[in-house]
Amino acid sequence: MRVLAAIALSVVLVSLAPGEVFVTAYRCDGKTPLTLKDPNTPHVYSDIMVGTRIVLVVSSDKPWKELTGWWGGLQSTWDNWERGKLAGRGYDANDPNSFNYWDSCLPAAGRLARVTLFSEDPELGFNRMGFDLITYREALAGDWFVLDYIAEKTGSSNVGFFDFALSPDVPKETLSFTHVPSRDFKGNGIVDFADFASLALRWRQPVDPNAAPASPYDLDADQLIGPSDLAMFNEYWLERTDCASSAAEPNAPTGGL
Q1: Cα–Cα distance for residue pair 237/41, rounded to 1 Å
Q2: CB 189, CB 241: distance < 8 Å
Q3: 51-to-151, 170, 238, 240, 248 alpha-carbon distances in Å
Q4: How far is CA 215 from the centre of its chain?
Q5: Is the pLDDT of residue 45 over 80?
Q6: Residue 256: pLDDT above 80?
């Protein structure tokens, strides 16, 4: 009887547990989770190369009705935006009144879901850029929204995941990325033999520190293409920056909708 009572109590507690809306970062295939720098530290990810496209998926473990509603966003400050930009999918320029990125709304979010561009004017002292994510009563448990994140410049960049019911200004979670120089020298979406050959052609060549632009092959910035650069190159061997390598690099959204 005690065992049955304990099972019954656990079922009740699970059913009463609050729902959770969360964000997961995937590699460009949208299926492989992006690895963490430390498994014990959530949302701080392993270094990615400049030019890499990451897929961010917002999901819920309960339907909208059990959450008593949800409205949130994926947004960053302007200085972070300069290094890593978010991009929505499927904006219809022929339907300018909707302001919706249709392909960023996944089926479980329901037909009334919306992903809209959010932009504050930095000249007026505001400091956020990104997307609002809106759901309605018909949203089911599952994946709700998908956005792309593109690493554009070296350095650290953070993306805030907001639950506006908790706070309009403080993110519920902060996704932290560090961008390193690309090893995809040929720009074909993967670090492969073509990039290795390009590096090998410059083996032991000195690098002019005043050259503009700087040499992409001097990965350790010691002004010589040598063993250290090869070791750093090998760290990303066969890594993809974009799984749709034949497609043009996705553009970050702008205010000119």
Answers
A1: 26
A2: yes
A3: 5, 28, 15, 10, 12
A4: 27
A5: yes
A6: no
**What token pair was written down for 119?**
């932009």
Side-by-side strand order, sheet with 114-119: 48-49, 173-180, 155-163, 71-76, 129-134, 114-119
Q: Which residues pair with 212 in a beta bridge?
A: none
Please report, for the chain, the start and end positions of each structural domain, with discontinuous segments joined by +. Answer: 18-180, 184-246
The backbone region for 187, taken as left when phi is positive above 0, alpha when psi lies in -120 to 50, beta otherwise, is: left
Local structure of 150: helix, strand or coil:
strand
Which residues, at least 6 apart from 83, have a Cβ–Cβ distance to it below 8 Å? 151, 152, 153, 154, 155, 156, 157, 179
pLDDT at residue number 3: 39
Quick: pLDDT tens for 167-188: 999 999 999 999 999 999 999 9
230 to 140, 190, 252: CA distances (angstroms): 49, 16, 32
CATH 3.40.50.261, domain 184-246, yes or no? no
SS3 for 98-148 is: CCCEHHHECHHHCCCCEEEEEECCHHHCCCCEEEEEECCCCCCCEEEEEEE
Strands 48-49 and 173-180: parallel
Per-residue model confidence (pLDDT) at position 124: 65
Return the structure tokens found at 191. Answer: 């670090």
From the candidate CATH numbers 3.40.50, 1.10.530, 1.10.287, 2.60.40, the one assigned to the domain spanning 18-180:
2.60.40
> What's the confidence (pLDDT) of residue 192?
96
Q: Is 9 helix (H, G, I), strand (E, B) or coil?
A: helix
> Residue 198 carries which DSSP code?
H
